[in-house]
Write a structure and sequence with these properties.
2 copies of one chain form a homodimer.
Chain A (H helix, E strand, L loop, with lengths): L5 E7 L7 H14 L3 E7 L3 H5 L3 E3 L5 H6 L23 H13 L1 E8 L1 H16 L5 E6 L15 H19 L6 E7 L6 H4 L1 H6 L6 E3 L7 H15 L1 E7 L10 H5 L17 H12 L3 E6 L3 H4 L6 H20 L4 E9 L5 E9 H4 L20 H7 L11 E2 L2 E2 L12
Parallel strand pairs in A: 1-2, 1-4, 4-5, 5-10, 6-8, 6-9, 7-8
Antiparallel strand pairs in A: 2-3, 10-11, 12-13
């Protein structure tokens, strides 16, 4: 394909990660420097910014502030959870998107988000193709959940994993300090895939992590769990457990639903809102043992603790954004950038970049392979460790000011079109 | 006083901090190098190790592993919450302590802990004096609560403050990412003094912190709070609130007690176990607004997140341990080492080291001065910022291995006495 000249829009969507802005920066910086891209717009609050004509002109930002995006957590352009209807059912949104694209001369659209965002990319790409509007659409993945199909791992996961493993090592030291018996239950994010919870195994590998790790990939039975904890507690006087918020019993019912008066709130995509599992399991263990039992939720710091980000993740995420622009300018469309695991001549981890069909990526969820768990399904084995360890290497080069993070401050100036 | 030759014991007590081991290392290293100190013993699980003859020989440890103590959170010698009875009521424990001291030729006792530990120091010191046993007793403070009298600030507080301020800045970015209205309530530790919660003001000072900060120093009225939050939420579409777990109403009742079926568990010192406040306030706000409301507990990572420790705190804590040994060898006893704030010729913060009477320190709690709060008592003013900012400077020099903290591993070998 030949060079396509025009403006580009970058938008961010879904839940925050520590490095989603590193990807956006890789995209913005590369686009600003590319001669085929005539203007670089940021869409505020994901696709909603396109729908509401709420764009900002990235060329008006101070380059030094843009550079700080690499180390600033959460979506600096704002996010949304907005699911486009199928165009065959209701094409109102698509008409509106096309109108905005035409108004600003947009020929490149980059969407930086998770599964749902890749679905949005795919729908927009197909609509533009059907309406003979030449626009190249590329997905730049992000999700701490690490559940996107195709790519070896997802931008954002390594930093969340590093934070979880580090925090578990620190909690281990804290939880074992007294000579009285203690049981600690740590609840970790992850609705359907256990990748985040599995990261606790990196702490165990270092000799200071949880005794037991439970992921949603395996059915969780409360009675068997209590017996397993009691066995360790009676022998060691202590037990630390990492559980994924999404663990379910054999019937597929969330364990958290058993003990919690869950508000039946659903998020914009119809997912149940989970939580309170650690407190529930702590209550069960309190009733069944004489231990001091503590339930801890790592909560949203898992996804935004940029101060503990993996520099490997930051650099890879930046490159994912850069490559999305490069591939689009080369002529590619309707693809998601992803990672391919490779190694150098010494067998050391190397990340290569590839592209994946959006159709295959959207709305599928990659789980932990069954043979990465131990036999009793309450821990991860060396296959997971070998997978995860290279990803968490390197400390963030975050700029500090007065001993605190210096996060980016954008002016967010509207384009004069 | 003349040189006193003999062995020393170092023990740690109370809740963990990120830097309590930095103090212990300062004490152990200095003692190992001092010619008047003939042996250096660690007492496992605080004073209980002395009572149960459960000591370890610090000279048997690898010096490189000892050096890693500086960056290892929580009490590496183990902790306890054990309150000595008054000797006049029951002197059993004191007799036992004296017996252990005699058995090992102990002439120096260093206790590294909070208010309760300073009380223990004071009692032991008095007993030894009354029984003509020449033993120098020094307290090495630690408490994230920052509530010890006399000292300008407490070892451990700056690191907790740095973690809280950093996390609040990250939560701010996370909580403001969607364009739908959100209210976020973050619960921070602190039973009677608001020092930890106040640290959230450092994030506000940097432009990304909570809108409202509530400390136990000021009475908290739920109705007024709801109105204040609603006012901000209606104007901004967002509101972030930091609350101390220990906030109470005008009648002195903990706010957390209103909404929680608090287990009536008390810790070893008769303090009520608090918690669940964020969830309670989130529930109240959900009922009174149309916002998406989230309650977050920073939980015990506040006190053990060594990966985000203040290097200033680490160095000062190390020096506190060092100076305890030096002063004791010089002849001092029955004192706590503490900090005096000073400044250099350019007006920059300098920490000087002093000693304080244990009697004045034990069982008193230093609160935030009333004039460090804003007029509406829902924020801190520039006096707090000027106080706290120098303390959180400098990034930890923690050793990493495979992208994770390399914490110390002690052999804990019993002495051959």
């Amino acid at each position: 394909m030949s060079a396509l000249k025009g403006a580009c829009i970058i938008a961010q969507s879904g839940g925050p990660t520590s490095v989603i802005n590193a990807s956006a920066y890789g995209c913005i910086k590369t686009a600003l420097e590319n001669e085929n891209i005539t203007a670089v717009y940021g869409s505020l609050n994901g696709i909603k910014g396109v729908l509401n004509d709420n764009l900002i002109d990235m060329s008006k930002e101070d380059p030094a502030e843009l550079a700080l995006m690499k180390y600033t957590p959460s979506s600096i352009l704002g996010s949304c959870r907005y699911k486009l209807k199928d165009a065959s059912v209701d094409d109102t949104d698509y008409k509106c998107i096309l109108e905005t694209f035409k108004k600003y001369g947009v020929r490149y659209f980059f969407y930086n988000g998770g599964n749902d965002s890749m679905d949005t990319c795919n729908k927009i790409s197909k609509y533009m193709l059907e309406h003979d509007y030449d626009c190249r659409v590329m997905g730049i993945p992000k999700t701490i959940d690490n559940d996107l199909a195709g790519t070896d791992h997802c931008p954002g996961y390594p930093s969340a994993a590093k934070y979880i493993a580090t925090s578990m090592m620190e909690i281990y030291h804290d939880a074992r300090v007294y000579d009285i018996g203690t049981i600690t239950v740590v609840e970790i994010m992850g609705r359907n895939a256990g990748w985040l919870t599995a990261a606790a195994a990196l702490a165990t590998e270092k000799g200071c992590g949880p005794d037991l790790i439970y992921c949603p990939e395996n059915a969780f039975e409360v009675d068997a769990f209590v017996e397993r904890v009691k066995g360790i507690y009676e022998k060691e006087g202590k037990c630390i457990i990492a559980v994924s918020e999404g663990i379910r019993d054999g019937k597929g019912k969330y364990i958290s639903e058993y003990g919690n008066d869950l508000s039946n709130a659903k998020d914009g995509f119809g997912h149940a809102q989970l939580g309170g599992l650690a407190a529930y399991l702590a209550g069960v263990l309190k009733a069944k043992t004489d231990a001091k039992v503590r339930g801890i939720e790592l909560s949203l710091l898992q996804r935004c603790a940029a101060h503990c980000a993996s520099q490997t993740d930051i650099e890879e995420s930046f490159n994912a954004g850069r490559i999305a622009v490069e591939k689009a300018v080369e002529g590619m469309t309707d693809r998601m950038v992803g990672y391919l695991r490779s190694s150098d001549e010494n067998g050391n981890y190397v990340c290569e970049y590839g592209v994946f069909d959006l159709t295959g990526v959207a709305n599928t969820e990659k789980k932990i392979p069954a043979d990465w768990f131990n036999e009793t399904k309450d821990g991860l084995n060396e296959k997971y460790i070998a997978y995860a360890l290279p990803l968490i290497q390197g400390e963030t080069q975050m700029v500090k000011e007065d001993g605190l993070p210096r996060f980016t401050r954008l002016k967010k100036i509207k384009p004069t079109v």
